[in-house]
Amino acid sequence: MSRLVVVSNRVSVPKGRGAAGAQGGLAVALGSALRESRGVWFGWSGEETDHFTGDMNMQRNDGVTTATIDLEPQDVEEYYNGYANRTLWPLFHSRIDLAEYKTDFGRGYERVNERFAETLFPLTEVDDLIWVHDYHLFPLGERLRRRGAKNRIGFFLHIPWPPRNLFVSLPYHERLVRTVLEYDLIGFQDEESLENFELYCQKELGLEIGEDHCLDYEGRHVCLRAFPIGIDFDEFMEGGKSKQAKEAERRIRESSRGRSVIIGVDRLDYSKGLPERFDAVGRFFDTYPERVTKTLYVQIAPPSRQDVVSYQRIRETLEQKAGQINGAQSEVDLVPIRYVNRGYARRELFGFYRASRIGLVTPLRDGMNLVAKEYVAAQDPEDPGVLVLSQFAGAASQLPSALIVNPHSEESICEALVQAQDMPLEERKQRWSELMESVRANDVEFWRKSFVEALVGDAAQPKG
Ligand code: GDG
């Protein structure tokens, strides 16, 4: 068994299944794979240093080795806040109006990828499998190859790959894609992203791609595939049995006093469609005044990327909208929207989901969206809630039994809310069991195994 080397912008220290703390499913899933293969997880520590030295901080926690580096403040500004979060993130979520194309950002991005390669390369051994994650690190594979890496190197993109006509607005787009083609296996969240990438390669670079989604590029065999990510099902369900989860469920049930609860849980990010969602809920209350006293909308939105102006703006917009709707619809003893600007433990989220009749997930663009899957997993099989899901989330193609909506259309969301509130128990059960089957089968473990097997396996082996 080859050793697995995982590389991502940030490293979250895997603590093992069931460990306390707000830990993502990705950390748990990769943690078990890293433990089994005695692998290493490499990335930025999140810390800054005045002068980059390339010194690594190696730690071993619960059988997993992590290796982290500190970056200079200028690196963080140009690579992370700049090129990653102000250029690529908006562009890849089809928000070219927010994408900033600055030469310094591009330079910082290249420099940090070089720094990653320079410190990572000496750590690697010839038969290591290297798995690079996400848009922060597109050029890393090429940088490793330049240093002589002959390893199998895979890349997984957690966000959507944009349509060709938007992507070409990126200066040096061709150079970026050519670096991506240095990987042996390139994974996307869904077929649409895969198609967008293929079309770009065919039309802009004149490359021929086989029916097996593989191509020959500069003497190597490169394969492209969709690997839809899932939640850590077992860990999440285990957490649902905890006291914390039960207590959280009770808090919502008691304080909502029989009202039908709509829940949203999203990082405060413009890709999640929050202002549009607030407008749709406002319209729902305006159109169906008799439902105001019977409904409670709880929106949990922990702030993220606070150093970026567009993220500060969206926060202000949402405060204003929530204030306006509550101002218009509240009674002395009733407030229809609870907008909460903080994060909760995963186990508490389980309880919140379970207490809610509707899970409202309406991103304008989303690679997958794990909240949709968590909502489904947390439901009571005897009295499940209804998932209302944006057609533009990667999850939509996996969860067709949800009520699928257009997040840009207030009517579409409004109608789905009415349909969900009025849905008979039998239909709720039927839809939920179909959703649950998919969430359970396509969990994060399945995703991880499929990717690693494809990276090792024949599909992506060099020819000849
Ligand atoms: C990127 C892609 C893709 C949220 N609030 C709290 C909290 N969360 C957790 C959720 C969920 C996770 O954060 C968010 O995952 P999403 O998938 O919804 O979205 P992104 O953060 O944008 O993730 C996305 C994902 O990568 C994986 O590939 O699906 O498309 O954009 O697990 O529960 N967790 C805790 N407290 C909170 O308040 N503990």
UniProtKB/TrEMBL annotation:
The Gene Ontology biological process terms listed for this entry are: trehalose biosynthetic process
Q: Which family does it belong to?
A: Belongs to the glycosyltransferase 20 family.
To which species is this protein native? Pacificimonas flava
Fetch the InterPro entries from UniProt. Answer: Glyco_trans_20
Name assigned to this protein = Trehalose-6-phosphate synthase
What are the recorded GO MF terms, alphabetically? alpha,alpha-trehalose-phosphate synthase (UDP-forming) activity
* Alphabetized Gene3D superfamilies for the sequence: Glycogen Phosphorylase B
Q: Which residues cross the membrane?
A: none
